[in-house]
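4.2 Preliminary Data

To establish feasibility before requesting continued support, the project team ran the inverse folding procedure on a target of 326 residues. The structure was first converted into the token representation described in Section 3, and no sequence information of any kind was made available to the design step. The complete token record follows.
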């Protein structure tokens, strides 16, 4: 087989790169920063494969600039950074890396939940700002997590991993899905609710849905108004799932107690109103950012890439129409 050209949008783990070098030349971006579209188009012009690491967008203009392109192997679960419809029209395969980051992202959801409930970010700023002068009864009093009600919107792999952790905290776990999952109810002891009922009942609400036209602004002013004033919202899904303007207004008005966010509507931009609030735990989209998991993500992306370049159907193909028409 003729040597292929593979472009990786930023330096990847050596183990994954070595796999790719079996079939061709691997070129990586010199920076982790997002390349300008014109520069990215120039670099992928003769490529057979692109591996976007992180949130580098691959719009149709990039797909059109690479006439030899066979696959875009996204190193993430979410693949909304790729114009999948345009890729399918051009018979370009698109893959992602589900499963390998499930447990790590569930850990992140819990880190945010515990952090905002027990006011960990506030406490850190309090100490660093030289404000701590002693232990006082009413100082930075938070909210218990154990024994409360957890509501999960999106009971896929990550949602189920979050639910299992909730059991360890003695929580009653509710969930909402497009389709009721009777097997999960039996295996995990979770209870199905409509979205509205879940919002009314839960003390902690975690979002773990994919981004789609149906889930954009899934949580807006009307949904936030249904939540308890003592409840917390955690988003480890995608930023646009939450209307950030509505969230800021709800937090300022005390309509909900707080929020934990790992994702934002216009990343890396963060709504200015969020930055001025104390009852938040904010992290820069690092849900899968453990060393072990990032290696698994890179390796899975490399495996998907190799399959496509060797004429095999990739395991994690998200646009099967492109395979059938190849």
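Position-by-position output of the design step:
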């Amino acid at each position: 087989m003729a040597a292929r050209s593979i472009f990786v949008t930023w330096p990847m783990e050596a183990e994954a790169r070595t796999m790719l070098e079996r079939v061709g030349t691997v070129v990586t971006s010199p920076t982790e920063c997002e390349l300008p579209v014109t520069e990215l188009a120039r670099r992928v012009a003769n490529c057979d494969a692109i591996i976007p690491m992180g949130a580098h967008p691959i719009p149709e203009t990039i797909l059109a600039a690479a006439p030899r392109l066979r696959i875009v192997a996204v190193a993430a679960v979410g693949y909304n950074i790729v114009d999948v419809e345009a890729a399918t029209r051009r018979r370009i395969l698109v893959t992602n890396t589900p499963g390998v980051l499930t447990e790590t992202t569930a850990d992140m959801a819990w880190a945010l939940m515990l952090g905002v409930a027990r006011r960990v970010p506030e406490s850190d700023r309090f100490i660093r700002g030289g404000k701590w002068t002693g232990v006082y009864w009413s100082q930075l009093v938070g909210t218990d997590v154990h024994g409360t009600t957890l509501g999960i919107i999106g009971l896929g792999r990550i949602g189920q991993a979050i639910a299992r952790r909730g059991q360890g905290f003695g929580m009653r776990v509710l969930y909402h899905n497009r389709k009721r999952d009777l097997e999960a109810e039996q295996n995990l002891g979770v209870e199905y609710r409509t979205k509205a009922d879940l919002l009314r009942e839960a003390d902690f609400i975690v979002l773990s849905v994919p981004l789609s036209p149906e889930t954009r602004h899934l949580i807006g002013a009307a949904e936030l108004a249904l939540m308890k004033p003592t409840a917390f919202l955690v988003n480890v899904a995608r930023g646009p799932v939450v209307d950030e303007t509505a969230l800021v207004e709800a937090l300022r008005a005390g309509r909900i107690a707080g929020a934990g966010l790992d994702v934002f509507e216009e990343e890396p931009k963060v709504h200015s109103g969020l930055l001025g609030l104390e009852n938040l735990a904010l992290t820069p989209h690092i849900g899968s950012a453990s060393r072990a998991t990032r290696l698994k993500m890179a390796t899975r992306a490399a495996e998907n890439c190799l399959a496509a370049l060797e004429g095999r159907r990739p395991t994690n193909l998200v646009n099967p129409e492109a395979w059938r028409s190849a």
